[in-house]
Amino acid sequence: IAERSRAPEGANNFFISSMSFWYLDSFNNIVTSALEAIYIVVSCAALVILLSSRSLTLSLFSGISILYVLAAATASLAGLGWSFGIFEATLLAIVVGLGSDFIMHFAHAYSMIP
Known about the structure:
By secondary structure, this protein is mainly α.
């Protein structure tokens, strides 16, 4: 809207429509929601581990481990030459769930050691 107010008369009533813009908008929403899912899952997993084990150190290392699983999965995709798209964002959401579940089970088992 700010660009339209500075445009000369006759060029300030433009409207652009293309399938490329639709794809770009969808892609931006997918990336944003994938990052939000990562933030939510890591913070919730760390909070659950903190409340269940009452160990700040275990909670911190579990959060770092979940982030490492995500970084390794993303680096593997980049190493294989895949570009980030709809399929990869869905895969990232699944990896977030599996990685956090796996780490939470290990943290629980570690906290139960006498």
